[in-house]
Amino acid sequence: MLSHELSANQIKEKIIKREITAQEIVEELFEWINLKEPLIKAYLCLDKEGALLKAKEVDKKLDNGEKVGLLAGVPVALKDNICTVGIKTTCASKILENFIPPYDAFVVKRIKEEDAIIIGKANLDEFAMGSSNENSAFHITRNPWNTDCIPGGSGGGPAAAVTADMAFMALGSDTGGSVRQPSAFCGNVGCKPTYGRVSRYGLVAFASSLDQIGSVTKDVYDAALLLQVVSGHDGFDSTSATVGVPDYLSDINNVDGNLRIGVPKEFFGEGLNSEVGSAVMNALEIYKRNGAELVDLSLPHCGYAVATYYIIATAEASSNLARYDGVRYGHRSQLSEDNIIDMYSRVRAEGFGSEVKRRILFGNYVLSAGFYEAYYLKASKVRNLIKNDFEDAFKKVDCIISPTCPTPAFRIGEKITDPLQMYLSDIYTIPANLVGIPGISIPCGFTNTGLPIGMQILGKHFDEGKILKVAKLFENETDFHLKKPNLIEPEPKKGIDI
Ligand code: GLN
Asked: Which residues line the pocket of ligand 1, CB cutoff 6 A?
């Protein structure tokens, strides 16, 4: 196996044992990126110089026999809505095209402290709004398993980078599924922690009551490792929890007691692709063979989750995005304006893409006088009903298992003109954001055409330790997570001679 194909923990062990230097691995990785990035286009920006500098620092620490961090020498990609001091953070939007943050996000600070190496900023749907990556203002990232397909969204860049071995792990954001859905489509492990588990300081806000930073990794151990590093209280994020951070790593192979797994009927109904459904059913059988009890469940209000989410998320987005006015930072129109209102309009008309505009309009509509009660207030009430469904369910079970998405990755262009179809691809991931519980997507099979299938494990608030163990149990029994795509340029399509 080539070095860049290893997991984050494996490469860290090799670096610590001095079997390879951090500089060597960075050099090798960038060679691979140079070869494969033109095909996949996972990144918006790469920082080889910064990566080599950090690698030298790690190697020096090891030379001097100093203690190194939990991510010593591990090259990491960051979704480009996570602020990095001195490196552009664009949110894949023209409005932030040249924005260089003056500070690091909390998670960036933490991974740097643990000696990770930041290699670049990965592509996303503009402002993390989308499910396919097609809303990036710059380019479309391709799914490494089939480059005619989308990698998922909004974090298609981080997921494609990890799948194509162009990063050992990545951090992203999950507001309605943007870590779990692309991970499912690309065959990675995608973990969205409990709301409040990881500080969002320095994450560009989309919908503040839903946003959470999560990880994209090659296996479950790496997910636990990265969560260990980025979890914990931060005074700069008022929603960051003060709940203590357990040790996610030492006991990861021991599922305690008799595992009770909830199987909610609403997640296996209409719209579910049959190959996805049977892969998850087969996975449930593996748990059963390992002593788990499967409990049939109903989460009756989940049918309203997508509608509820698109009211709450757009309402919050419309106020969060009001800060982009072209005055303090971001895009400023070159055309002259007569007054400040025209100036704001021009900045936003030029700077935002069409999906972001749709969400701002929608959000302003549902918040406007006369409509607030009918939409936002009602959605908040339905959100509570969904929360109650999960609370009741967790009285009976330890975790809930479902498909991560109703279908495998779809083709580029297939849904982009039909927003409703696009929104429905998040049907199984959105409830966890509305309720604030943790969820993890792990690979559980492949379709006949070779596309990965993801299975979602949901847990109680702050029960990340449990879902990681449940995920690890499955991973220990299977090898789906070890499969690699064949990154070969597709045959050029033959044109028609006229
Ligand atoms: N696809 C969802 C949306 O478009 C979720 C996005 C996300 O989690 N950032 O809003």
From this structure: 128-131, 153-154, 173-178, 206, 313, 426
